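Archive entry. Fields below.
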Amino acid sequence: MNKRRVVITGLGVVAPNGTNVSKFENAIRHGVSGIRYVEKLNELNFSCQISGYPVYNNNYLNNYFNKIQLRGLHASGIEYGVIAGIDAWKNAGLSFNDSQSPLWEAGVIFGAGILGVDKFREAIYKVDEGNVRRLGSNTVPQTMASGISAFLGGMLGCGNIVTTNSSACSTGTEAILMAYNHIATGNAEVILAGSTNDSGPYVWGGFDAMRILPYKYNNNPTEASRPMSASASGFVPGSGAGALLIESLESAQKRGAKIYAEILGGHVNSGGQRNGGSMTAPNSEAVQRCIRKAVKNSGIHADDIDAINGHLTATTKDPVEIQNWCEALGRKGTDFPYINSLKSLVGHCLAASGSIESVATVLQLKENFIFGNINCEDLHPEIASMVHRDQILTKTLDFSPNIIAKASFGFGDVNACVIFKKYNSI
Amino acid sequence: MANEELLSKLKTIIAPYVQNQEGLKNLTENTDFIKDLEINSANLVDVILDVEDEFDIEIDNESMEKMLTVKASIEIIEAKLAEK
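PREDICTED_STRUCTURE:
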């Protein structure tokens, strides 16, 4: 069956360094970090007392939620996801469905890692006190994994697939590919795809306990996230949400919508936690296979890729990721594409990382730039031996990329790679 | 507590959940929360919790099931207040 062409017609983002698309674009162009010291983490005896989290005034929520929805809302992931999702919908020029009829051709695929932890904590206290009757009606919608897609689906009146996917740190990229496949095969015309992740000590604590977060940067937080650097010492925990309005080209043209970029295809796989892969580490064979299949499924050649937006979390695994890209694409040295990692600016937004980073990737295609990485002046020697220094930008470059590959890898040894292309009507 | 005062407090409590504002304007003792005010049935438990907080009373499950109209609610609140 012939696959239909699929494009991106709207973007929304709530990131640690920008809570809407224009602020975010400005921040990534100028290397503005969203990583801050968090006093609460100090009080709780965290080793890593910094994080990347979105900052906005509570009144801002009145633009997105009604009074009933705001009552007892203690789920930061739902706030971020709804703001990003509604922004992407509006950005695409779509109107609100105030009729009684669902939009049968519009769906929501919005992933989450964990949702409503603060609400859940509140519920646990009440239940343990024997006071379950005081939970009220809003505990379930805020703590169910699919809470975010349920909120968005209802606000927008979507009548196609409305679901939440979850695959750890590859969640956001996977959501985009799920939406792409659904539209390419003719099952929907429009899907709001994205992902979100809660903020706070209950989300980040488990990672702190694993000793995989940097703990020497509590006094200079913006220097802590160091992807590809020789001094990388762990990922900075983050949060937020990214959203992309994904649409069939046919539908976008019919509406006369602005097109940000085209999705050529991609691939999702797992290393089965075999051959070097584990709950926390990727099987390199699977990573390379995922990238190769993404390239093949997109009908392009590895040499067509102008830039890569990597997963690159700033752990000791970054050189392994670079090696996997080199081998999968058969490119190295000066022939290697430009590569960047948003995590140097916002930290690792966990389940939200893939979607926030995809928003950054798509902005690069539309607005003709490749944002610079911060904190990697001291390039890791193993990376320097594989890729020429010039390909790892430390300052934003005015450049018109045609094709960018974006990959995300997650706990459970799961991988996702998507190929974005500058939109061209032919 | 005078009936008028109780009614006004109840009106304030249910107002955020009301989806049919016309119904709220024409509120009478016979007003039905779901039929006339279009309050989402899931939100009825939130109305009950807010009533408990406002009047410092506890409403048992049986009474709760009956609190579907303004009249029934006022009767139950009055009875619970009298028990205090």
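CURATOR_NOTE: DSSP finds five helices and no strands in chain B.
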